[in-house]
Give the backbone structure.
Amino acid sequence: MRLRASFLALLSALGAGAAQALDYRSVAETAVLYDAPSQKARPLFVIAAGTPVEAVVTLDTWVKVRDMKGDLAWIERRLLADRRMLQVRAERAQVRTGASDDAALAFEAEPDVLLELVEPAAAGWLKVRHRDGPQGFVKVTQVWGL
């Protein structure tokens, strides 16, 4: 009976965690991601600076993150920045001069291009900036990292 109560409490705690808002961060500098929260763990891959990731679990100095492809890995917390970057997931993201399909096209971005989130806009649009300077508005559905 005690084991069953502990199991139900664990399920309840996990369910409560799932209801929390998603926490997206960006990688501060090029970094190695590992299969466990330790530098002695097996390195999985290298992730580029600016890449947005979703923080799934945080343990002291390590964070388990998910990338746009859904891969999970561990990164040192110090290598994550608060600066919000978005990654283009559309075949060709259209960045417009205003938050409307009728606004002029500012530029287009290929898949995996990183855009800095400047500010959320109205009705499913985001104000973004390309690293070369151009700014505009992109539809939420064309990027990942929110």
